[in-house]
Specification:
Structural class: alpha+beta
Strand order of the largest sheet: 1-2-3-4
Radius of gyration: 42 Å
Shape: elongated
Order of helices and strands: HHEEHHEE
Length: 199
């Protein structure tokens, strides 16, 4: 009796195709949890990247503002060098050339008001001391000295106010819908200003 030979193709198909009972995979809950974790991770990455780009952009903008301010202040210093206060405009406005046309500047020069120094308190104390020592001539001399010192102090204060100017440079630009500004201040002293001996 002839034996049936095994069919190789049928054995290969039965071994390659798994039955439903032996199949394995992920449940719907596991897939949803994996997707949620991926979304959280991607959101964090995008937020960090966006914040880094914003910080870098602001840093570059502040560097540009500082560069423009230094350049303009040097130009102003060269402009006022060797001139008197009356020869320079007290206020001036303008816009930077390309590619910085979005930045404008304002220059303002104003007189500095120094506080008036007074020695009246010291004079009164000295006069009272002179009265207790019974020396009328000494008291009068001290009073005269105090008046002379006070007068000289007023003259020096007036000279400092007239020979010194505050130069303020303000840069303005827009950052989105917000107006931004950067202020730089220096002091201009006229060393050739005449010292007046009268008030």
């Amino acid at each position: 009796m002839q034996k049936n030979k095994p069919n190789f193709l049928s054995r290969f198909v039965s071994a390659s195709v798994p039955t439903l009972g032996n199949s394995s995979g992920f449940t719907l809950l596991e897939v949803m949890i994996a997707i949620t974790l991926m979304l959280i991770a991607w959101t964090s990455i995008f937020a960090t990247q966006s914040a880094s780009q914003t910080i870098a952009w602001k840093s570059n903008q502040l560097n540009a503002v500082a560069m423009l301010a230094r350049s303009k202040m040097s130009e102003i210093e060269n402009e006022i060098e060797g001139k008197t206060f009356d020869e320079v405009k007290k206020e001036e406005r303008g816009t930077f050339s390309e590619p910085w046309q979005d930045y404008s500047w304002t220059k303002e020069i104003k007189e500095i008001e120094f506080p008036q120094l007074s020695l009246q308190g010291g004079g009164s104390s000295t006069e009272a001391q002179g009265d207790t020592t019974d020396s009328g001539s000494s008291s009068g001399s001290t009073s005269n000295n105090t008046a002379a010192i006070e007068r000289m102090t007023k003259l020096i204060t007036k000279f400092l106010s007239q020979s010194t100017r505050e130069v303020t440079l303000t840069l303005n630009w827009k950052q989105g819908a917000t107006d931004r500004k950067f202020t730089l201040t220096t002091w201009w002293v006229d060393l050739n200003h005449e010292f007046a001996l009268s008030e």
